[in-house]
Write a structure and sequence with these properties.
1511 residues; five-stranded mixed β-sheet; alpha+beta; four-stranded antiparallel β-sheet; 59 strands
Amino acid sequence: MAQEPRTLPPSPNWYCSRCSDAVPGGLFGFAARTSVFLVRVGPGADAIPGTPPFRVIGELVGHTERVSGFTFCHHPGQYNLCATSSDDGTVKIWDVETKTVVTEHALHQHTISALHWSPRVKDLIVSGDEKGVVFCYWLNRNDSQHLFIEPRTIFCLTCSPHHEDLVAIGYKDGIVVIIDISKKGEVIHRLRGHDDEIHSVAWCPLPGEDCLSINQEENSEEAEIPNGKVIAQTPGTKGCYLATGSKDQTIRIWSCSRGRGVMTLKLPFLKRRGGGIDPTVKERLWLTLHWPKDQPTQLVSSCFGGELLLWDLTQSWRRKYTLFSASSEGQNHSRIVFNLCPLQTEDDKQLLLSTSMDRDVKCWDMATLECCWTLPSLGGFAYSLAFSPVDTGCLAIGVGDGMIRVWNTLSMKNNYDVKNFWQGVKSKVTALCWHPTKEGCLAFGTDDGKVGLYDTYSNKPPQISSTYHKKTVYTLAWGPPVPPMAFGGEGDRPSLTLYSCGGEGTVLQHNPWKLSGEAFDINKLIRDTNSIKYKLPVHTEISWKADGKIMALGNEDGSIEIFKVPNLKLICTIQQHHKLVNAISWHHEHGSQPELSYLMASGSNNAVIYVHNLQTVIESNPESPVTITEPYRTLSGHTAKITRLAWSPHHDGRLVSASYDGTAQVWDALQEEPLYNFRGHRGRLLCVAWSPLDPDCIYSGADDFCVYKWLTSMQEHSRPPQGKKSIELEKKRLSQPKPKPKKKKKPTSRVPTKQELCDGNEEESIKESSGPVENGVSDQETEEEVREPEPPCGDTPTVSKEPVTCTPASLGLEKSKVTINNKVPVLKKEASKEKPEALIIKKRKARSMLPLSTSLDHRSKEELHQDCLVLATAKHSKEPSEDVSADLEERFHLGLFTDRATLYRMIDAEGKGHLENGHPELYHQLMLWKGDLKGVLQTAAERGELTDNLVAMAPVAGYHVWLWAVEAFAKQLCFQDQYVKAASHLLSIHKVYEAIELLKSNHFYREAIAIAKARLRPEDPILRDLYLSWGAILEKDGHYALAAKCYLGATSAYDAAKVLAKKGDAASLRTAAELASIVGESELSASLALRCAQELLMARNWVGAQEALQLHESLKGQRLVFCLLELLSKQLEEKQLSEGKSASSSYNAWPSGSEGCFVERVTAVWKSAFSLDSPEQYQAALQQLQNIKYPSATNNTPSKQLLLHICHDLTLAVLSQQLASWDMAVEGLLRAVMQSYDSGNFTIMQEVHSAFLPEGCDHLRDRLSDHESPTTPAFKSLEAFFIYGRLYEFWWSLSRPCPESSIWIRAVHRRTTSVEQSQQVDNVSPEETDPKASQPEPSKTPEPDVKLTEEGEQMLNTCKELISEKHASLQNSQRTIAEVQETLAEMIRQHQKSQLCKSTASGPDKNEPEREAEESLSSPQSQRKEEKNEAVSLPELTKRLTEANERIAKFPESIKTWPFPDVLECCLILLHIGSQFPGFVTQEMQQQAQEFLLKYGNTKVYKRQCQTLCT
C-alpha cells in the first residue's frame, strides 16, 4: 500500500460565525488556534483509491492570537485569495498557493468578531468588531472606510450576493440591520424579532421574492409589524429574502422589500442519537445556516445536539424538515455545529462541510444528505503516542483535551478512522501504554495523577486505580510483578503488572486484576533489597527491557539506575546526564545481532542523547553496583531538551528522537550519524513513534495540537537546525499564541461565550463524567502547560486560567509543566533548583544593625590580621597598657570580642551612625540591647521619634516612666494631627477628661462622646456640654437631624424639636411635631403640627394636612377649619372659580353628599369624620378657635392664606349656629365677608354669600332675638354687603353685550348702537368698580328691550339700605384723612428730595415737586386738579385733618366698629343703571344718590364722577 504523509490537525475554533470557508474546485480552509489549515477535497486531493478524497495540504501561519474569521474570495480567477481576522487585531489577506500574506490592516481597535469577502466586489473585505465598528477594506486600492452603525456587539455579518452595497449585520442582542455602505452605512432596514445573539445571517441565493410563495396571513405575528423604516423601492432593495439564526432557538426569514419578517421556524427538540454525550449536560445552542445556491426553497440549519436539518420553506406552516444522515447511526455530530460551508468539487459534486464542538470536520453529500467523510482533530497537546503490539497499526494518542484517540492507521476505507475515548478521563492524557499481549487493553495516565485501564473494544468506562499520583503521570510501563505482588502461585497473580512514574518522583506498581486495591511504591523494595539508608533519588522515567528481567529508572538528578528482577537488585548506576531524565528506550530484541538488545538510549533536559551498552554489566551480575560514566555512543545535534526516544523496529540501531527544538531526528546510533530531520511541527515535540509496519513512516505529536505522519525519505534535512536555522525555528514556534499575562480580555461577544462554555459547560461536563474533557478544558490546560498558550481557539475555548509565561525554559513553566511531556518532570527538577534563587531576588535584604562593625570586618587582610593581634594583646595582657586602650578605642568593632565597656562604645558609635543616616528605629533597638530603655525614650521624645513599639516597652522601665512616655507620645501625636490616636493613648493612662477635651477642642465630637459615654457617669456635665456644643455646630452647618439627636442626647428635647423644624418643609415639621408630642411639649407640638398642615395646604395635600393636625388633640378645631376649607375649595374648583385649578389636589375621601345646603354638608362631614355632634363638643371647638386671631387681609394676601383665614371665621360662624349663638354667627360671617372685601377678592365674597346665605339674610334677622342688641349693627353691615354683592351682579347682567333673561330681568332683543353705555361705563373709576367688573366694549350689539321681574324690583328696592347718610358721612371723613395723610407724606418726600439735589435753577425745581406729586396720585383726574389748583399749605392740611377727626369722633361706636360698603360707589352704580335703563331705579332713589355724590364727593377720588353724572 502506497504511503503518504497525513496530518491530524488542531480543532477548528469554536464560537465564531465564519471561521471556515470553501471555494469551487475543492479547496476548504478552517481556522484552528492561530492559523488556518487548508484541505484539498475531491479528485485534486490525490487520495489513495478507495479512501475518502481529501487531504490536509498546508497551513497559513502568521497570526499571533486566535483566528476569529476566515473567508475565501469567491470571484473566478481569485480563488487563491482569502482573508483572516484574528484577536491580535489584524485582518490579513493571503495567497493560498504560496501560503504567504499579500497585505494586512490593523484598523480595528477592538476584538474582531465578523468577517466576509464581498461576493459582488472582488476586492472588498468587510469586518466588524465587538464595539459595533465596521471597516470596509478595498484590497486593490488599499483604501478603507470606517462605519459605526450601532453601539452593540456584532456577532456576524454577510455581504449581499445581489447588491454590492448592502451588508446584513447580526448583533449580540438579537437586532439585525441591513446597511448601505455607499451611503456611509445608512440603515436600510432594522429587523426586530430575535431576542438573543444572532449566530448566522444568510441571503437567499436568488434575487427577488418570487422563489417562496409566502402569503401574509400565514406569517407569524412578528411579520405583521414592520421593522425599521419604510423605504422607497430601489433596485437594490426590490427584493430578496434574508435568513437569520439565533440563540433564541428560532430561524427567521425576512423580506427586504417589506422590511419585516415573513416566516419563523422553531427548532425541534430531537432525541439524541449516538454520539455518546450525556443528555443531562446543558449545552449552549449555536444556530448556523446555509441557503443552498441551487435549492432556494430549502435551508440547512444546525440544531441543539449537532444534528443538521434541511428545512422545506415551501411548507413553513407545517414546519417540515429532513434530518441529515437519518438512516445511519452515529454519523451526525455529537455536539453543537458552528459553521457550514458549501463546496463544489472539480467533478461537480455539491458538498457541505461542517465544524463542530465535537472536534470533527464532516463532509456531507447534499444529494443524499449522508456523511461522506470525517476529519478528526485535536483540542490539546499531543502528549503521548503508542502503537498496539497486538492490533498492528492501532495508534493511541493521549491528548490534552481530555480524550484518548485510537487511530486505525491501516484502514483501507478511511485514512482517519479514529475513535474517541473520554469517559472517566476528565484531564489531560499524559501517558499511554498498551498491554504487550492482551488485545485492546490500554493503560493511560493523566495530568492529575490518575492511572486507568481502557478496553478499547468495548464501550465500558475505564477501570481507575484507587492509588493516585500526587502529580502528573509521566510514564507507564508493563513489567513482571515484583514483591509484594510477586508472591503467590502462577494463577494467583497477573503475569504482568502496570508500573507508573509520577511527577512527585515515585514509581507505583498496580495490579491490573485489582485496580481498586492499593498500588505499591517500589522504593520500599529497592531500599530493603539493597540496604539503602540514604534518601532515594526522585524518579522521572521507567523502562523495562523487552525480556522483562531488567528495569531502568531515570532520575531527576540525571542518573539512571539499572535493577534486576525479582527483587530489584541494583546492579548499575549510569552517571552521564546532569539534568532530569525524560526518556529511556531499550533496543528491540529481534535485531540481526542479539547483543543490540542491551543498548539503552536516554535523553534528558539537556540536548544530548546517550546510548549505553549494558551487556557486560547485566551478564556479569556484579555483587555490588557498578557506576558507568562513559557512554557507548553520543548523539549530539538537538538544541533543546529531549522528550521522547523510539528505536526503529525495522532496523538495527536506528533511533528517532523528539525535542523541544521543534524537530524529530532519525539517527544511526551505531555510527553516531544524523540521518533525517523532520521540521513540520510549529511547536515543541512531546512524543514520537515508529510505524510498526512501514520502515519509512514515523508519527510525531507536539504542543501545536497536531499529530503528523511523515516519511523519512521525504525529508530535506538530515540534522536538527543549528545557529540561525534554529533561531528561525524558534521564531516560527513563538508565532504561536502568546499567553497574555492573563488580562482576561472580557470580550463581550464571542469570546465570553467561549469562556462561558468552555470554562463552564465544558468543564462541567468533565466534572460530571458526562462529556469528554475535550471540550475545551483540556486545551486550555494544555496551553497552560506549554506556555505557548493557545489562544482561546475555538477548540480551546479559552486560554488557560492560570497566567502563563512564554519562554520555554521559564521556570514557572517548567514547574507547572510537570505535566507536559512524558517527562515533564524535567521541568520539575529545574524548578526546584532555581526556585530558591527566584525567591531571594524578590526578598528585600534586611538592613544591618551593626553596619560599621561589619564594614570594618571587611577591610584588607593586613588590617584584619592587625585586629587579631590587638585583640590577642587586649585579652591576654594582665594590665592593659595605654597603647592597647588607644588601639581598642580606634578599633571599636572589637568590642564584640572584649569587655562590656568597649562593647558599649561600639554600640554608641553604631547608634550615632544610624541617627545620622535617618534610621532612628535601629538606634532605639541598639539602646534597648544595652538595656538603657529610659535613655531611649528620652532621646526619642526630644527628637519627636517615639513609636508605638517604644511606648509599649516603656512599662519595663517603671510605672512613672511609662506615664511620662505615654503623655510625651500623645503630645507628639498632636503635633502630627493624630488626635484620635493621642486620645487613645491618654485613655491608656486613665486621663479620660484630658482625652475628651483634646478631641473636643479639635472638633472630634463623635469620638469624644463615644469615650465620655463609655467612661463617665451618665450625669457628668461634660457629656451634656459635648452634646450641646456639637449640636450648635451641626445646627449652624445645616445638619438639623443630627443636631436634633445631640439635643435629645443632652435631654433638651424642646431644642431638638425646634432645630428639626428649622428646615420648614412638611416632612421636617411633622417629625418635629411628633417629637415634641413624645417628649411632652404639647404647645410646641401643636404649633408645629399646625405649621406642617399649613405647608401641606399650600401643596393642596388635604389628606396629609388632616393627618398632621391629628397629631394633637388641641388642634381639633383646626381640623374643622381645614375640613371646611377643603369642602369650599372643592366647590370652588368644581365651579372652575378658584384660580389656578390644580389637578394634583389630594382630597380626603369624605362622603360628598351634594344634597342640602353647604352648611349642612359641612356639619355632616364633621359628624362622620370627627364625631362632632354634641353641644359640648361644639363649645370646646369654638373656644379653641376663638383664641386664634389672624391679621386683616390686604390686596397682597395670597389666595390660599386668605381662604384659610376666611374659613377660620366661617368655622366659628357654623359652630355658633350649631350652638344657636346667632350673634356670634353673624359676627363670624361678617368677618369672613370683610376679609374677602378688604383683599379685593369679590369672587370669594360672592361664594361665601351663596354658600352661607343662599336665601339672603332674612333667616338671620328672625333669629336675632332683640332688635336693639349689640349685634344689630353687625347684622346691618352683613346685610349691606349681601345687597352690595347682589347689586353688582344685577349691574353686570345688564352690562353684557346681549343681556339674557334672568331672575331679575326679561329680555326682548332689538338692534341699537350702545355708545352711551360704553361711555358711561368708561367713566366709572376702576377703583370704584374694582377688578370685579369686566367692562363691556363699545360695539354694535342687538340691544334688548329689558323689563324688570318682580324679584328685580324687589332687589333694587332693598338697595335703599346701601344709601345710608351716617355711613356716607363717616366714609367721607375717613377719605379726607387718608387724602391729607397722603399729601403730607408726599410733601415730606419732596422736601427730602430737594435737600439732596441742591439745584440752582429755580424753574425745574418748582415744577418737580408738582410733577412727582402728580405721578404719585393714582387717578388721572387728580392730576388734572393739581394742574389747575395751587399746592395746599401745611396749616390748611392740618385744619382739614383736625376737622375730619372731630367729625369721626361724633359717630357712635357701633357704626365705626362694623364696616359698610362704599356708599358713593353704590350711588354711582345706581345712577349708571338709571341712565342706561330708565325706569329701573326710582326717581327718588336717583335723586338721593345725586345729593350724596354732591355732598360727599369732594375728595379727589370721586370729584370727576360727580361732575360727569351730576351735571
